[in-house]
Amino acid sequence: MNWTNCTRVTAFILVGLPRVRGMEGVMHAGIFVLYLLCLMGNGLIIVMVIVDHRLQKPMYFFLSNLSLIDIGHTTVFVPKLLVNYLSVKNSICLSCCLSQSFFYFLFGVTEFFIITLISLDRYIAICHPLRYATIMTSGVCLKLAIASWFGGFFSILYQIIIVAHLPFCTSNVINHFYCDVGPLLKTAGGDIYVVEALGFLITVLVVMSSMLFTLISYLFIISTILRMPSTTRQQRAFSTCASHLIVVTILYSSVFFVYLRPTFKSSSFSKMKSVSLVSAIVVPVLNPFIYTIRNHEVKEAVWKALRRKTPGFPKI
């Protein structure tokens, strides 16, 4: 086919989530509730870190970055998903689709960098406590966070530029609930192998390096915990690490299943939607609760703020 003479697609149809007759309202309400929980949980962490000086520490600084990422990650596609789920015509313009894909992966890649920094912070705090204050200064933390955001930006920018110049002439139906690169490439004409190879390479480098660094950090952390003389300290540290590893395991497992594939043309995206939903909605909802549910400083700061706003509020 001569791609120079084809009529370029200007809008796509998002297939969305599978529809179960009679359950559309329940699924819509469920996604809406999860989105509200994500906004409230992550928003609360950001606000508390800003207003409470006791939480202005490296760990909470990185957690607030993670919360900002989770809010952005879900907001990129959930409002459109909710509108489309109740709409007859689930269309999205080409530029909107490319923008959605860019920001979705910007937040996604940056999340791996921030999770790596959280594991680094915990490693230094537990394994080198005497040097922690001199290593993890506010300036160093700010530079690391900025580097993570720029790393996420430049990791996905070139791939999106290439995708934007592909001839979308064969189909305008995207078999997903957002503009994921894989289903988007499946609608493209021309040679997409360079884009596939680049995307696969970025995924391997970012995800594998992040996972390896995080795994090594927690191995050293666990080794240090086991040498602690206090059983109480061991239990508290193990409890914190276990909750962190739950998030890491869910996130990395879903990404491995969905994105670590050499080719997208032969992939069945219908089977990946449920896994994508977990990593895109469930994990951002769980993050603020898992990272702070056993954290006494955060709970104390929240209850202190509630008591200040609500006279007569009970103490913990």
Question: How would you explain this protein's 3D organization?
Answer:
The chain is mainly alpha-helical and 316 residues long. Helix content is 70%, strand content 3%. The chain has helices at 24-51, 58-75, 78-85, 94-127, 132-135, 138-164, 181-186, 193-226, 231-259, 273-292, 296-309; strands at 11-14, 91-93, 173-174. A 3-stranded mixed beta sheet has the order 2-1-3. Helix 1 (24-51) runs parallel beside helix 10 (273-292). The longest helix has 34 residues, at 94-127. It is globular and about 70 Å long. It starts with 10 loop residues before the first strand and ends in a 7-residue tail after the last helix. The relative contact order is 0.14. Mean pLDDT is 81; it is low at 262-267. It is found in: Cell membrane. It holds the Pfam family 7tm_4. It comes from Python bivittatus (Burmese python). Belongs to the G-protein coupled receptor 1 family. The chain crosses the membrane at residues 32-51, 60-82, 102-120, 140-161, 200-226, 238-260, 272-291.
